[in-house]
Structure formats: structure tokens, C-alpha cells
Amino acid sequence: MQNITEHIDALLRAMPPITLEQMSEIRLMKRTDQKYLTNLPTLLRLLEMTRDSYYSQEIEGRRISPYATTYWDDSSDLMFRTHQAGHAPRRKVRVRTYLSSDQSFLEVKKKDNHGKTSKSRVPVPSLQAVLEEQAGQDFLQQKTGFSLEHLVPTVGNRFNRITLVNRAKTERLTIDFDIQFYNYKTQLSAAMSNIVVIELKRDGRVASPILPMLRALRIKPSGFSKYCIGACVTDPTLRVNRFKKRLIRVRKVSQKATFESSN
After folding, report:
1. Between the chain's N and C termini, which has fewer beta carbons within 10 Å?
2. How confident is the model at residue 27 (pLDDT cuts 50, 70, 90)?
3. Which H helix or E strand runs over 21?
4. Angle subtended by helix axes 40-50 and 244-261, to nearest 10
5. Above 50 in pLDDT, residue 263?
6. Single pTM value for the model
7. What is the pLDDT of residues 126-163, one digit of tens each?
8. Rounded to whole angstroms, how far apart are CA atoms 147 and 159?
9. Is the Cβ–Cβ distance between 20 and 60 less than 8 Å?
10. Which long-range contacts (CB under 8 A, 24 or more apart) does 164-169 make?
């Protein structure tokens, strides 16, 4: 994995950098998201293709940023079950930590009936402050009506993220890899080291330079909720009917990555 990460980093450094300050004009807090699923060998090919069309986000000299996220749900797994049933609007509650800077945010992510995603967040001292001191409680009640007293941490994950911005600065592309899951209830872990989740974030349907590249590499749209997939692979008691086909696809993509990497 280290060699792959070094290769990815080298490809990213062939692109011009974009700073966090420059990123502020394209935050896309209200946006349309489309996710794609692929593997590490295909990611390398994609990054070679994007070299002349995208900036690569750089933070304190880093082009690859490690993240950690913990999701909250109630004792009946309401948010998981709402997603599993395909209902909208639906929400996710999570604490996200940017490990490079040790900054944490309590976030509420909502998808409406039209497929639009909005995200609200408030800084918190740490994940432990939310767990032990209910930091962010007022924000959560205002945004969701939920109280931290009635929610519990369910699934945690860690992953590496790349962020690309097109030259016109009308879209943001996040690419997550080396994904690891941990379940707070079952204490089970799972790794998806060969899986790559690409998410195209843009306002409306503006033209995107990445779309013809994805088509050329046969990378197709595929839903992938880190919370729901992480819960499915770490909690054998959950009903996963709606996610069965998705889990099969994830397995096939992962196996293909392993085969290609060994040749």
C-alpha cells in the first residue's frame, strides 16, 4: 500500500496546487453529488488523465489528507434504516476529524427529495469532547431536533482523501482510498484497502471535464455510503437487503484490484 500511495502522491504533484484559501470560493455546501466506485490501478490511470485539467489541493505541503469520521445513530438504527429503505429526506450525524491539523467538526448532512445534499457543521474540540461532554449539543438540536443523550456512536472510519478542482473552479472532486471501518457496538473491524470512492460535487449540471474520463475508463456511477456500507460489513445483525447488490459490486471491484495489482 505504501508504494501505491507514493505513486499517487507523485501523480498529484504533477498538478498545480490549490490552497484551502483558494478553495473557499467553491465550498459547494448546497450541491448535487454523484459517486463512482473503482480500484487503485484504475485510479492511477485516472490521475494521469486529469493532470492537465485539474488542480490538486495542498495543505501544509501534503496532497493526501488523512480523515477520521464517527457516525451517530439512535438505538434503533433509525438513520441507517431510513437510508436502507430509500427514504428522503434523510440525515447523517457525524464527527469528522482532519488528522493532519487535528481539527474536528460535528456535522449534519441532509439529502432532500430532489437529490440535493446540504451540510451544516460546527467546530468541536475533539471527538472525545462530543462523547464525554456533549460538545455541539445546541447545534445538533437546532438542526435535527435530536439530542446527543439519545444518540450513540455507531461506525467509525479512517481513509485518505485527495481533492481535485477543475481549472474553471466550478466543481470539486474528492477521491477516498485505503478505507478502514470500526463498529462501536460489535467491536468488529473491516478494511477496504483496494476500494476507491470518487465523488463529483457540483452545483446543478454544469459541464464537467471528469465525465468523459470516467466513461473512457468504464467507471460507472455507484452509490456508496461510508456509514451504511461500514455498518453492513461490521454488524452481522443488520438487515442489509437493499445493500446486497452494492456489497457484491464492492467485492468484485476489490477482487479485480487485487488481481490487476499482482500482474
Report:
1. C
2. low
3. helix 20-23
4. 80
5. no
6. 0.90
7. 999 999 999 999 999 999 999 999 999 999 999 999 99
8. 28
9. no
10. 164/15, 164/50, 164/54, 164/55, 164/56, 164/57, 165/18, 165/23, 165/26, 165/54, 165/55, 165/57, 166/53, 166/54, 166/55, 166/208, 166/209, 166/210, 167/53, 167/54, 167/55, 167/209, 169/25, 169/26
